[in-house]
């Protein structure tokens, strides 16, 4: 039996396209007729906003595996292949240990009902982010190739790799995703080369170009593929998904 592969999108820095990546990657995976569960572990609840135009009247359900999980308010079925676990924004209850998310993703129904689980995380290294990283088979770190962002990313990737060696994390893959890339900028090209030299090409996913259409799509509450299928943003996330599904 093939079990659900769990991918956590994480970066300790805010505004690095984590949610944009979760929304558009999950939508692309679902377009390949693979069943995706998106778990929004950031109680800003922005994943829901990114899909709102697709699931306006969707009622929240509460399957057995979501009951007793006070972090989440319910499950929204965006389409046959794409479901979202939405966080409880109003009544946020801080999880006091790291096991609650493990119980959810390892639940037999989740493992059987989905091919992929994709988790969005908050930009702070608290229990929620640590808990999410601890259940990951794959950790994807989206980051803009700028010097300031780069030092944080190198530290985060190194810390994760050390934690894997010490068996504190079970992730088999830690992958860097360059985002908001402008290849015209020498600085971006230099940092990308630096990442390749440091981590090797196989740890670096195909980059996402800077493309304002991604922000516009989010503002119109839908994945970029529906909002502007001919945009660079749509093409880049499609390419990312095709590579991602070979790796993961
Ligand atoms: N490739 C891109 N080109 C241009 N703008 C982008 C790109 N990717 C994301 N953005 C925009 O950058 C901003 C931050 O993106 P996003 O909300 O996905 O980041 P985040 O890491 O989830 O932020 P937070 O840490 O607050 O959760 C948003 O306005 C988004 O529309
Ligand atoms: Mg976010």
TrEMBL record:
<dbReference type="InterPro" id="IPR025669">
    <property type="entry name" value="AAA_dom"/>
</dbReference>
<dbReference type="Pfam" id="PF13614">
    <property type="entry name" value="AAA_31"/>
</dbReference>
<feature type="domain" description="AAA">
    <location>
        <begin position="5"/>
        <end position="165"/>
    </location>
</feature>
<dbReference type="InterPro" id="IPR050678">
    <property type="entry name" value="DNA_Partitioning_ATPase"/>
</dbReference>
<dbReference type="InterPro" id="IPR027417">
    <property type="entry name" value="P-loop_NTPase"/>
</dbReference>
<protein>
    <submittedName>
        <fullName>Chromosome partitioning protein</fullName>
    </submittedName>
</protein>
């Amino acid at each position: 039996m093939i079990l659900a592969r769990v991918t956590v999108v994480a970066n300790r820095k805010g505004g690095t396209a984590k949610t944009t990546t979760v929304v558009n990657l999950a939508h692309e995976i679902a377009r390949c007729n693979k069943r995706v569960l998106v778990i929004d572990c950031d109680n800003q609840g922005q994943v829901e906003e990114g899909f709102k135009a697709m699931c306006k009247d969707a009622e929240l359900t509460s399957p057995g595996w979501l009951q007793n999980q006070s972090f989440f308010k319910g499950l929204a079925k965006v389409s046959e292949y794409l479901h979202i676990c939405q966080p409880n924004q109003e009544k946020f209850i801080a999880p006091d240990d790291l096991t609650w998310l493990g119980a959810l993703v390892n639940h037999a129904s989740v493992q059987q009902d989905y091919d992929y689980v994709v988790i969005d995380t908050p930009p702070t290294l608290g229990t929620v982010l640590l808990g999410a990283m601890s259940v990951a088979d794959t950790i994807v770190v989206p980051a803009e190739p700028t010097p300031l962002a780069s030092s944080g990313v190198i530290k985060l990737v190194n810390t994760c790799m050390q934690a894997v060696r010490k068996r504190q994390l079970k992730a088999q893959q830690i992958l860097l995703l360059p985002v908001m890339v402008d290849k015209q900028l020498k600085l971006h090209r230099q940092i990308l080369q630096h990442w390749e030299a440091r981590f090797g090409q196989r740890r670096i996913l195909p980059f996402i170009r800077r493309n304002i259409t991604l922000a516009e799509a989010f503002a119109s509450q839908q994945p970029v593929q529906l909002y502007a299928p001919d945009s660079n943003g749509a093409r880049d996330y499609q390419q990312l998904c095709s590579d991602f599904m070979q790796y993961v």
